[in-house]
Amino acid sequence: MTTYCQEFGGDPSSVSLSEVGDAFEGVFANDEEFVREVAKGCGPGGFAEGSWPATCIDWERATSELMENYVMVNGCYFVMG
After folding, report:
1. Is 72 helix (H, G, I), strand (E, B) or coil?
2. DSSP 8-state secondary structure symbol assigned to residue 28
3. Beta carbons within 10 angstroms of residue 13's beta carbon
4. Helix, strand, coil shares, percent, the chain, to 5
5. CA dihedral sign, ordered 64, 9, 24, 73
6. CA nearest 22: which of 68, 63, 81, 64?
7. Exposure class string for 63-73: b at 16+ Cβ within 10 A, else e
8. Rounded distance between C-alpha atoms, residue 61 and residue 31, angstroms
9. H-run or E-run covering 6
């Protein structure tokens, strides 16, 4: 709750758990790890590390583009807006 309020503002006592839960995406070591996890859930059945299409993705560029819609605070990832 505090982490969410640090980034998005508001008093932890007045922000609902539902609001935080809707924005929270998980805790990851870094942006690329987060993007790889998001990518695993894409498409029918996702895809496994070490196989196509994971081996063909420019992860640096994918991370840069996806992070335009997310924010990381103390390792916690939240979708913006």
Report:
1. strand
2. -
3. 7
4. 45, 15, 40
5. positive
6. 81
7. beeebeebebe
8. 11
9. helix 2-8
pLDDT tens, residue by residue, 28-51: 999 999 988 888 877 666 666 677
- pTM (two decimals): 0.67
Q: What single-letter amino acid sits at 8?
A: F
SS3 of the chain: the string is CHHHHHHHCCCCCCCCHHHHHHHEEEECCCHHHHHHHHHHCCCCCCCCCCCCCHHHCCHHHHHHHHHHHEEEECCEEEECC
DSSP designation for 67? G
Q: Amino acid letter at 25?
A: E
Three-state secondary structure call for residue 79: strand
